Amino acid sequence: MSESIDIRPSVSDSTRRALEKIGDYLIPEAHGMPAASTMDVGTSQLDAVLSSRPDLAPILGRTLDGAELDDVAGFVSELETADPAGYDAVTLALVAGYYMHPEVHRLIGYPGQVPKDAQRLGEREIYQEGLMELAQKVIDRGPVYRPTPTAGETE
Predict the structure, then answer these.
(1) 155 found inside a domain
(2) Is 76 a domain residue?
(3) What's the domain range around 70?
(4) Contact partners, residue 65, CB within 8 Å, separation at least 6
C-alpha cells in the first residue's frame, strides 16, 4: 500500500497567529468591512494563497515564526525597512487571502471572474479589455494546423 505524501507548503501555528494579528492591524474592521482575522487570513485563506504561491511559505515562516508582536505597528514598520521581502510576503498573503474570501467578494460587489464572449463585444470594449493584444499574438504567429484527411484517407 502506498502512503500519500502531503507536498503542500505549510507554516507553523505561530506564523498563522502572527499573520492574523498583523492582519487585524493592517486591515481592521471599518466602514462595514470585516477585520482580516474574521476572514480566515491565517487559516483557510492562507492555505489558498500558498497553494498558488508556495514560495511565500518559507519567507512567512522566517519572518513571523516566533515574532514579538506586543507592538504590531512597530513590528510592521521595522519589517518594512529591515526586511522588504518579508514585508512583501506578509502583505501579499494578507491582502490576497482577504480579497479572495467569498464574504469580501459579496461585500464589495465583486462577482468573481466572469467569462466574456469576444464575439459579442464591440471594438472599443475589445481594446479596453486587452483582448486585441492577446489575439494579435495569434494573428502574428500565423495559421498553425494539421489538414484534416479527406474521406477515405488515413494519416
Answers:
(1) no
(2) yes
(3) 13-108
(4) 11, 12, 14, 15, 18
